Amino acid sequence: MAEFSISGLSELIGDLEGIAALPDEVAREMLEAEAEVIERRQKEVGEAMGVHRTGVTLGSITHGSMGRGSGGDRVMYVYPDGRNPKGERNAAVAFVNEYGKRGQPARPFIRTANETGADEAAEAAARIYDSYLKNRDL
Fold this sequence. Notes:
There is one protein chain. By secondary structure, the chain is mainly α. The chain has one domain. The protein contains five helices and four strands; from the N terminus they run αααββββαα. It has helices at residues 9-20, 24-48, 56-59, 90-99, 109-135, and strands at 61-63, 67-68, 74-75, 78-80. Strand 2 (67-68) and strand 3 (74-75) form a beta hairpin. Helix 2 runs antiparallel to helix 5.
């Protein structure tokens, strides 16, 4: 008769539960690292696409604090904040640049930056996550 045994399963389950229970502080650090990459990329791509007449819109790009998305996931948004000297919302100006208007072609600097910066942002978060795992001997 065959015999089957497993050794170390309870430790593995404990390690996996520890990974699943990622502390908010680590998640915040990971999101912050990603947001910094995306902010920088949006400004660089915007500059390259000509979204820089006054520099106000690109200079207003920032990120908020960590929050919870509609599905309960941790999120951090990168967005143009505030108003320009004309009183227009920087987000509205960025929207027009992103999608264009009659007589002004679209300059999709946000989408392009988000797409081209995704791998770098994920790598920045992965370094923090890897450090967290190593500190827990996982």
